[in-house]
Every structure is written in structure tokens, then in C-alpha cells.
Specification:
This protein has 8 helices and no strands. The protein is mostly helical.
Length: about 180
Amino acid sequence: MKWGVPVLLFVASFFAATRLVGQAPDGTMSEGEVETLRDAAYIPSDRILAYERILDTRMKRLEDLLAKRRHVGREQDVHDILDQFATITDEFADNLDDYRKRHRDVRKMLPKLIQATERWSTALQAPPEDDTYKIVRKLALDNLKDLRDEAISMGPELDGYFKEHPDALKQEKERMDPDRAHAPQ
């Protein structure tokens, strides 16, 4: 009984630590992609770009898969890519929602993100209908729509917030580039 609590704490911390390695489930993102997101964690615009590159990679994989000759297991491969896309897009939307709540100035990134969601949506609709990935494609498209809607509504909301709170905009600029914020103008 004396070892019960320490063992439980060790097991709980082990599972928590393995979950913190990357927010997405194992196999969804490569170690390099997770590392890229970690490196970009403090600058929202960099993190948005990192997510866009990761999703562009998935889009390219899907296009390459569809361009090749049919092979056994192709539908499962499409399923796996769509599943990854759905998971990453959901995580991306969570990050964007966090930036909204914290009033992070990502307004310059939003138009490009909205364009990217349209490109990704087209790519996700390219595979022919198949029961193997029908549900996961719908989930990916729904998550993508949520991401797009978040980006569209976020711009005007942040415009209004920073108009009402000019000091918050100044602080945000300092946070993004501390060296330039204190330079004479």
C-alpha cells in the first residue's frame, strides 16, 4: 500500500507527458511537424503558417494518391489522410479560437487562411464516393468549414476589439516584435 500512491502518480504523469508530446493522436503528425508547431507556439502568425503547411502536405499526399494507379488498399489510404486532415483541422480551429479569446492580432493571416480552406475543401471532395471514407470525409469537411467560419468572423471581431482598445494593439505589436516596438519612429 505504501507504493500505491507514488506508482499511481508515476503512471498518471507518464500518460499526461505522452499526451503533451503532440496534441494530435499518434500517427497524425510526424515528429518534425509536431516540433515545427512547438517552435511556432509563441508567435501566432508562425503557428498559423505551420498548420497551413502541414495541411498543404496532407492535400498534396491526397492528390498524389489519386493521381497514381489504383492499388489494393487505396481507399484505406484515402481514409487515413482524410482522418489526419480532420484531426489537424480540428486542432487548428482550437488554436484559432484561443487566439480569438486572447485577442491575438492574426488579422493579416486570415485572408490567406480563408483562401487555403477553399483549396483544401476542393481537394477533400476530389476522391470518388466510397463507404470506406465517407464518414471521415464529412468530418474533415465539417471541421474545415468550422475553421473557415472562425477565420471569417474573427477578422471583424478583432478589428472592433483593437479599435476599442488601442493599448491592447500596442501591446500585441510589442509582443510580436519587441525590438521594433521600442524603436524611435
